[in-house]
Amino acid sequence: MSTKPTWASRSQDPPAEYEAAMADIEHRAAQGELTLAQAKREIFELRERFAASAGVVTGWAMRSQPGTA
Length: 69
Description:
Shape: globular
Low-confidence stretches: 5-10
Number of strands: 0
Radius of gyration: 12 Å
Strand content: under 5%
Helix content: 55-70%
Distance between the termini: 29 Å
Order of helices and strands: HHH
Structural class: mainly alpha
Oligomer: single chain
Mean pLDDT: 77
């Protein structure tokens, strides 16, 4: 995974690349392929890559959960 920063979307929805990367992290964590520390590190790197603040990422996460949109 590249850690090169990219511009964070100002739209309401997360970029498709961000969603795909998060889905991959979630899948690998569910399969037991990542420790909690590894998952946290990858999520932090992903957030930095998209230059997104914690508030933006939290909003993206809330919108991706069923029944919260």
